[in-house]
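Much of what follows relies on a compact textual record of a protein's fold. With that in mind, consider the following protein and its fold in token form.
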Amino acid sequence: MRERREEAARSEAAETPAQRDAAWAGLFRHVAADDVLRLAWAEWLGFNRAAPDDVLLRIVQLRVGSLPRRRDLSPALTDTLASHPDWRVRAELAEAGAHLTPRQWHALFCAPPEPRRLEFLVEWAARIGADLAPDTYERLATHPNPAVRAAAAELPGLPAPFATALADDPVPAVRAAACPAAWQHLDPPARRRLLDDPAPVARRAALLAHHEEHPLPRALHDAEDLGEQAVRRCRLERDLAEHLAAHPDRDVREHLAANPHLPPDLVAALGHDPDDAVRLAVSVRPELTEEQRASVPYAFDARAMRRTLPWVAALHDDPDAMRRCAASAHPLLRGGAARARRLPPDVAERLARDEDRAVRLFLAESCDDAPADLLLEVWRWWDGSFSHPDRPRGHPNFPRADLLRYADDPSPRMRRLAPDDPESTPELVERLSRDPAAEVRRRAAEDPRLSPATAVRLLDDVHEGVRVTAARNPNLPARALVRLLRDRTTLSDAAVNPGLPVPVMRRMLEGVGPRR
């Protein structure tokens, strides 16, 4: 049976130019323009990295898939999508907008106006810290819709003149949104107007800003219902701080533990709070010495999801601060340092030897200076995540030379590295395509040196991951690709195959109408 399958694979792979042309012509036999098969082709072609701009634009016009979320679109196509009349296209582009230029953001905001949807786009731009052009800030800060102006007030790069103008906006919600950015630029009369604002939402925002500089009395805190933000951000009068430090609500005490203005004695008291979360919040305060930090009996779950501490992230460009964090006994400080994009060699080397596996992983994922031996060590137990799918193997510092020594390694994961060696051969790839471990066969299936016959053979592999990867190999012969494209269970993988000829891609979209 195995010999017959391999002979069939060799036969299908050995196609002549005439057989190839006939296969592509047969792809469309008995497939009408409105066939659901064509709509499915269109949806998955949007993920094909070899599809040219005209094919991708046609897919966008058909309203299928989520193509605008791709981050590898050409600048020309991105320009076109940024001014697309369909707000859904612009919204999807904005969701992946970290790569957009200021001019592309401007085009996105200047497309046909739909205020509620524009508000969403501006809010999203503020959330991801989009870099905008001066005329874009002006357009948004002076927009006739107050919801858009309020969203614009929260843009991180909003110039001070626009922030101060919005702090004097006729709409209370806009004044409130502008307070944090405008406060330091306002003169005393403007501040007093906001502190006495008849609108509670604007007055509360002004009070929060004012009391980051001046202690907040307990009576005012209670009367104005300033909530969590006041506990976290404001300077507090002594009786209010003591009241909150003994508050029965654990969440209140945890918020207070993050307050940068808290007196040392209350910080020390919260460091011995009965609740683990409160003590952990105290343990990561930036002003603590290592001795003080070590005196806090915090509980730390090494398996829990970790987020970089904001104050550590703000110091990523400070080499001395990163040295201090890397030398800390606290895993959250070391992990935060490991997330820096660039680190001095001594800091990177220290973190590469960290006892905490998560710290070493963060270094491998995020830092351009991660040492090669660390990347190889991490590869033994980690081969990528959703947020960093190509790390550590795709890291520029990952070793490439001398990987052939792993071709016969007992670990399948290490055998996967052998084809990455510059001196590896197609014969090695063919050999690994018969490896007993599915993950090694899958690595062979993605290799561009794989022979057409072997690519066809792997389409019948017992492991689904190998079959899927083989369906995407550019060396698959036309007859095999056509067979996969006409089967609804396999067309999704075949449609993203970069070996699909561009004229065939265009014909696959012929006659397809836009999805309603």
Observations:
- The chain is about 55% helix and 0% strand.
- Residues 306-399 form one domain.
- Residues 25 and 399 are 45 Å apart (CA to CA).
